């Protein structure tokens, strides 16, 4: 019987996950069926259980259910524990659910493998202190940057988030208004501001000449933050489409034991 997987979220119609995992399955010769599930806001746990009880082997989880998936998991990986959110559920042989978060490793692999961006020893700025930023903190710090600064409109939120990971590396939180006079090698936007055509209120000169900007969001047209990077001297102004594909590849690896190649899938989605 074909192994069944799905992505659950609300809304879900826009999801590219079935397209991505279908491409991975064809490429690796894995026989799977991957569907979209529109999750009920009050019925998430029941719907996950129903899917698994009817033969499902694993799930991707998207907004607004990542925190609920974290609570539902019987066991969590260290990166999911730090993220406080789960985007991948794996049914273990004993029937328990393992929760993982592949967002951060997806970001890191897109930056380092696909775009050749060195993170070790660099000054990183992460904009935003919400779920998207929390989800990528641990994998970023594992790259051993010289310093990771979390900047947020509300400084207290950034400082609280930094305090949660102080043992993992050189990390600090601050308000956006405290960035004046500082420069960074890589600036990562973990806010959704770009989708509404806005950019966080950061100094015009906070990117070193030839630095890299990365918007964790993506759209059919370049986001506002991609435009900001291009107009402020970035050698690469990247969006989050590669992160989307790389986090999916990590989920596929967890489920199937084989890592698919991603470059062709990213090209297909760009076309």
Structural features:
271 residues, alpha/beta, Rossmann fold, 2 domains, six-stranded mixed sheet, six-stranded parallel sheet
In short:
Helices cover 37% and strands 24% of the residues.
Describe this structure in words.
The chain has 271 residues and is α/β, with parallel strands linked by helices. It folds into two domains: 3-100 and 244-270, 3-Layer(aba) Sandwich (Rossmann fold); 104-238, 3-Layer(aba) Sandwich (Rossmann fold). Helices cover 37% and strands 24% of the residues. It has helices at residues 17-28, 44-53, 66-72, 78-83, 103-114, 131-142, 155-164, 224-231, 241-256, 263-270; strands spanning 3-9, 32-38, 56-61, 75-76, 88-91, 97-100, 123-127, 147-152, 171-175, 184-189, 207-215, 236-238. Helix 5 crosses helix 6 (131-142) and helix 5 (103-114) packs across helix 9. The longest helix is centred in the C-terminal third of the chain and has 16 residues, at 241-256. It is globular.
Share in helix: 25-40%
Question: How would you write the strand order of the largest sheet?
Answer: 2-1-3-5-6-4
Largest sheet: 6 strands, mixed
Number of helices: 10
Q: What's the architecture of the largest domain in CATH terms?
A: 3-Layer(aba) Sandwich
CATH topology category name of the largest domain: Rossmann fold
Q: What structural class is derived from the secondary structure elements?
A: alpha/beta
């Amino acid at each position: 019987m074909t192994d069944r997987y799905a992505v659950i979220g609300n809304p879900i119609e826009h999801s590219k996950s079935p397209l991505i995992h279908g491409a991975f399955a064809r490429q690796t010769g894995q026989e799977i069926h991957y569907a979209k599930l529109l999750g009920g806001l009050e019925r998430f746990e029941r719907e996950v259980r129903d899917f698994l009880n009817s033969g499902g082997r694993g799930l991707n989880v998207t907004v607004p259910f990542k925190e609920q998936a974290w609570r539902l998991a019987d066991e969590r990986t260290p990166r999911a524990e730090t993220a406080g959110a789960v985007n991948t559920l794996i049914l273990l042989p004993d029937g328990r659910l393992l929760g993982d978060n592949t967002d951060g490793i997806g970001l890191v692999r897109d930056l380092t493998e696909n775009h050749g961006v060195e993170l070790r020893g660099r000054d990183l700025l992460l904009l935003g202190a919400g779920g998207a930023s929390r989800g990528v903190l641990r994998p970023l710090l594992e790259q051993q940057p010289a310093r990771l600064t979390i900047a947020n409109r509300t400084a207290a939120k950034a400082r609280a988030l930094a305090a949660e990971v102080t043992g993992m590396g050189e990390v600090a939180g601050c308000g956006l208004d405290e960035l004046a006079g500082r420069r960074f090698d890589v600036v990562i936007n973990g806010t959704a501001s770009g989708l509404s055509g806005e950019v966080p209120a950061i100094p015009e000169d906070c990117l070193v000449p030839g630095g890299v900007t990365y918007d964790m969001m993506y759209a059919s047209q370049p986001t506002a933050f991609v435009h900001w990077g291009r107009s402020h001297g970035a050698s690469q102004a990247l969006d989050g489409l590669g992160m989307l594909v790389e986090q999916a590849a990590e989920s596929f690896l967890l489920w199937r034991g084989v890592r698919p190649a991603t470059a062709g899938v990213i090209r297909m989605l760009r076309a």
